[in-house]
Every structure is written in structure tokens, then in C-alpha cells.
Amino acid sequence: MEAGGAAHQRSVGVLSLQGSFNEHIAALRRLGVMGVEVRKAEHLEKIGSLIIPGGESTTMAKLAHYHNLFPALREFVKSGRPVWGTCAGLIFLADRAIGQKNGGQEFIGGLDCTVHRNFFGSQLQSFEIDLLVSKLAAKEGGPASFRGVFIRAPAIMEVGPDVEVLADYTVHVNDSTNAKIVTSLRGLEDKKSSSTQKVVVAARQGNLLVTAFHPELTKDTRWHSFFLKMSVENNEEHGLSISKEVASSEVKGPIFLPIFE
Amino acid sequence: MSGGDSSGVVALYGNGASIAETSKKSSTFSVKVGLAQMLRGGVIMDVVNVEQAVIAEEAGACAVMALERVPADIRSQGGVARMSDPGLIKEIKRAVTIPVMAKARIGHFVEAQILESIGVDYIDESEVLTVVDEDHHINKHKFRIPFVCGCRNLGEALRRIREGAAMIRTKGEAGTGNVVEAVRHVRSVMGDIRALSNMDDDEVFSFAKRIAAPYDLVMQTKQLGRLPVVQFAAGGVATPADAALMMQLGCDGVFVGSGIFKSGDPARRARAIVQAVTHFNDPAVLADVSSGLGEAMVGINLNDSKVERFANRSE
After folding, report:
1. Is there a catalytic annotation at residue A214?
2. B299 near B259, Cβ under 8 Å?
């Protein structure tokens, strides 16, 4: 409370139209930071950084469209304030997308990459896996791997020169429906030369961070703390700090789901 | 979960290349619950053909339930209601990019096997279809695909979760357009959880016995202060206000069955209900989206004893 107006203006927002926004707020809370729910354009004025959670990208895009959020969101990205997209959020931030529903969709853009929506297939093909995340570990400590939960997940097929790859995943071209996608994308009909294919599942470009998996569904809060540091660095340039949670014992927040391991 | 599907600890291996292969796990309970978590704050709509599925997706549904008949028609036409034609479900799956769910009859594990093999995203083991096993539900741990099940109270919800359900919905009274039963069921679950939260640990044993639920899940629910999986409302939701009411009562999202495509202007009503679930706490938005929706579905008064209670078909 004592921090007052300026700090409040730089809190972390979570786009709360649909999806796992509660889970992100829970993860932020574990780090002692209060996440602010963002449902309307005017809510964006009060925050210094934004998380776009997982969920159904079509649904989230529709809801954003109904309330004319896209211009404000694009403005937010352009202003240079940090934005992190997980799963559906990654689709929102990508400049180019393939595998859309008929008629296409309106998104935010900003990250120079091509994302494939539902690259990993339907629910039956959803999985969890230990990803090698050396760059994250170098900054945040902890083990060199991170448990990535992929739920009907997208993947980044190509990145531009300014994009820093933070984690990738090797797909076996012969083991699933991905085969067709990868070969057609690369124009390779020859199976030998492309038995494996690397896709990007975490990346950063300037103040934009994206992950194809769901760090909000795991106990490991290193991605959240990585993003908070991006926010802090950005705030410091403007001489502001991240607002910490107000007297957490007194605030009766929402109740969160357990994390299954 | 202690159900034998725990994925173990995060192991640290020497070098990157082999990490991925050894640790990859599909269909863990966390992945099953994970999809339900991605549906939170969303609306799941019953559809009977490709056109309706496209309308639902356009309106912003977070998933569709592929059916041959909506509950209101099952109610009026009678007869045995079964799993839908897999061909129809596949057609709907091809037409939309959002998740597609389908219903299997209670206890009919072969219908569930068929639905799993055609790759639907979630199975609803549903009392709206005719029951085939009056004593046993499907052992949902045996499946790679996640299940959602109905409940009327806390005990029933926890029994379904112990059987492997990764998502719970209220039973309500499907196909009536009357939300009274859904309110009763969500009030019952939430009320029991509030009572449980204030209970002395010593009292939990007999409480678990009284509601006929597994002790470990009762204890977990007490510690969390909520069900350990995502909880949706279902059964009788017909208006944006109904949907927002269920959200304010504490549900994570809403199923709408007959309420949309049995109404005057389905596309508009679908869009309104989607917005109502996101802005459930904002009466100004609710007033706005509730305006000019045309006729709602015809409701059924549940005081009439001739109306069959689907909710009482299973325990």
C-alpha cells in the first residue's frame, strides 16, 4: 500500500478473457506479486507488463474482438512494455500463423516468427516432457531442464534473425501426424534426410517472451520470475518498481487448483 | 494424484539430446486436467451438425459437444439415447479447430473406446444418454483420453474423480431450459466444501463415510477449499444471466446444451453467453449482451412429476 500510485501503475496484468489466467495469477502470487485481471482496454493503462495465458486462441480472439481490445493490445506491444504469451498467447504474438480455422483470425503480432497452431495435434497427442533450458537456468538457477506441459500446443516453425531461441524440441518425423506438416513445410518428400525436425518452443525478441507450453501448470516458477525480471528492467528504465502483493494474509484471493505431478 | 499416474519428479540428465525422449509422458493426470484448465472461463456448446459447430466456434465457444440429438429432443422424442455416429463426430472435428467432446453412455466403456480411437478431445460420461450399467461407471483410469462426469453433490463428484474423471460438471436437468437443478447441485457442492473447510480433522472420517467419498480426496478438497479438478456448470442454462449466475456461484465455466440451438437466434445468443461468462461480474456488460436476443428456448417446469429426472439416473 505504501508504495502508492506510481508502483501500482506498473503491476503485472494477466489477460483474463478465457483460459488459464487464474493459474498465472497463482504463479505470480507464489512469487509475491499480485497479478491484475485485464478484461477491457482501459485495464491496460494501469499495468506495466502483460501475460497472455493459455486457452482457446479462437475464443480469446473473439472475446478480444467483441470488446475492441486488439488496437489497445497492439499499442501495448508497440509501447515496448513486456508481454509474455503462453500457448494461445504465443499465437497472439506471432507475426505469421498457419493452421488457422477457416476465415483466419485477427491477432496482435510483434514477434518475428511463423507459428503452427495445434502443431502437436489433439488432446490424445498432448504430453509433458523435460525440456533443456540452459539459458533460463543460467539466469534463474535451478536444474538445466524444465517440465514442459504441452496441451494441444502450437510450435514455432521459423524465427527471424532478431529472435533469441530459449528452448526447442525435436520432433520425429516418422512418429506422428507432424510428419506431413514438417515435410510439406520444408518441401521435403525424401524421408531419410528429415527423420527429425527441430521446432522452437520458447523464444524472446526484445520485450516479447513466448512459450508453447504452460509454465503456469507446473510448480517451477522460473519462467515467471524470468518474465518479472524483464518487467523490472523495463520499469527501471522508467524509474518504477513492480508492485508487490498487499498484505497477502488479509487479501482473500481466489482459490487455486492443485498442481498434479 | 495418487492414482498410479504420477509422472514422477523432474530428473536431471547429463546432456540435452536424450532428455526429451526418456521423460516424455502422454495422458498423465496433469495433462488431462490441463486441457480442462485451458477451457476455464469458457462455454462448451452442444451441436448436432457441422453448421452448428461452425456457428459455435464463430461465437467463441471454447469447445463443442458433438451429438445426434440435443437433450431437449432426447426428452421429447424418448427412446434409447446412445453415443453419436462416429462419422458425424469426425466431420465436426474436421470443421473446427477448437476441442471436440462427445458423450458416451454411463458404464459403456466400449463406446468410450470408440470415441478414444477417433481422437475426440474429451469424453462426457453422461446421464443424458440412457444408462447401460446401473452399478458401475467407466474405469476412466484405463483411458488415455480425459473424461468429464456429472454430479449432484460433493460425494458424487469425488467418486467420479476417484474413477479417473479429470473434470466435473453439475448434472442440472438437461434439456429443460430450467436452471433450478443446476443451482441446487452447485449450491450443494459448494456448501459441502464450505462446511468441510471448517471441520475438525477428526470429523473428516465420518464425513467421508456419510457422503460416500474416498477419504484422501475429501481431505484434499478440505485443504484446497475447492474440488481438485475443474468444475463446470451444466443442465438448464438458457440465458446469459443463467451463465453468469453459475459463474458467480463459483463454477469455472459453463456447458450450454439445448439453450442455444433451441432458441430464436442461436448465433447471437451463443455470442451473448460467451461474453456473459467472461464478464460475469459486470452487470453493465450483462445488460448489454442480454438485450434483443429473441426468444429463449421454451422451459419445462420441474414441479411436474411426469418430467423424467435425468440427474437421478446414476449415483
Report:
1. yes
2. no
The terminus-to-terminus CA distance of chain A in angstroms comes to: 36
Helix axes B266-278, B283-290, angle to 10 degrees: 180
- Please choose, from the candidates B151, B219, B229, the residue with its C-alpha nearest in 3D space to the C-alpha of residue B188: B151
- Per residue in B53-85, pLDDT (tens digit) is 999 999 999 999 999 899 989 988 988 999 999
Give B-chain residues touching A125 at CB under 8 angstroms: 26
pTM of the predicted protein model: 0.89
Count of H-run helices and E-run strands, chain A: 8, 12
The CATH architecture one would assign to domain A8-242 is 3-Layer(aba) Sandwich (3.40)
Query: Hey, what CATH topology would domain B29-293 get?
Result: TIM Barrel (3.20.20)
- Determine how many CB atoms are found less than 10 A away from the CB of residue B234: 31
How close does chain A come to B219, measured CA to CA in Å?
13
C-alpha cell recorded at residue B227:
474440488
Average pLDDT over residues A85-99: 92
Q: Would you kindly state where each structural domain of chain B is located, as residue ranges?
A: 29-293
| Cross-chain CB nearest to A19 (options B20, B40, B57) | B40
Q: CA separation (Å) from B4 to A56, B156, B221?
A: 29, 21, 19
Kindly give the pairing relationship between strand A111-116 and strand A83-86. Answer: unpaired
Alpha helix positions (H), chain B: 16-23, 29-39, 50-59, 71-77, 86-95, 109-117, 154-162, 180-197, 204-210, 215-224, 240-248, 258-261, 266-278, 283-290
CA distance B75 to B308: 8
b/e sequence A127-158, b meaning 16+ C-beta within 10 Å: bbbbbbbebbeeebeebbbbbbbbbbbbbbbe
Q: Please give the single-letter amino acid code of residue B24.
A: K
Residues from chain B contacting residue A88 (CB–CB below 8 Å):
38
A131 and B20 in contact by Cβ < 8 A? Answer: yes
State the burial class of residue A78 (Cβ atoms within 10 Å of its Cβ: 0-12, 13-18, 19+).
exposed
Q: Which residues contact A205 (CB under 8 A, 6 or more apart)?
A: A110, A111, A112, A160, A162, A163, A164
**Which residue stretches of chain B have pLDDT < 70?**
1-22
Residues of B with Cβ-Cβ distance to A256 under 8 angstroms: 224
From the CA of A251, how many Å to the nearest CA of chain B?
16
Written as nine digits, the cell of A113 is 516468427
Tell me the nearest-neighbour CA distance from A61 into chain B, angstroms: 8
Domains of chain A: which residue ranges?
8-242
Q: Which helix (H) or strand (E) holds A231?
A: helix A222-237
